[in-house]
From TrEMBL:
GO MF terms, alphabetically ordered: dynein complex binding
PANTHER family assigned to the protein according to its UniProt record, in alphabetical order: PROTEIN KASH5 (PTHR47300:SF1)
Organism from which the protein derives: Phainopepla nitens
Coiled coil: 9-43
Key word rRNA processing present: no
Name of the molecule in the record: KASH5 protein
Presence of the UniProt keyword Transport in the record: no
Alphabetized UniProt keyword annotations: Coiled coil
GO biological process, one term: telomere localization
GO cellular component terms, A-Z: chromosome, telomeric region; lateral element; meiotic nuclear membrane microtubule tethering complex; meiotic spindle pole; nuclear outer membrane
Amino acid sequence: SSRQALEQARVAVEELDDMKAVVKRLEEENTELRRQARHTEKEQRSLCSRAEGLQEERLLAEGQGLREQIQEQVTRMASLEVSGGTVATVGGAGGCA
């Protein structure tokens, strides 16, 4: 009977040691996953920041293109006013309001 109790105790100790090893492995895995999550979060913030910067650059370039188009229109209108001789005709013909 005491041999059985000792054997059961030994088996229980082995199971406990196995469980401790599993817990330790899971804790290490959890730590690594948390590290990866922090790294991924930093990368995501960096990518969002870059995307915002690129969008801002695109909008600035678009704005510059529009300014150039407006300037070309103004130059054409001025040219038409000079060659046509009358400002009212050009202005009334559908220029920018």
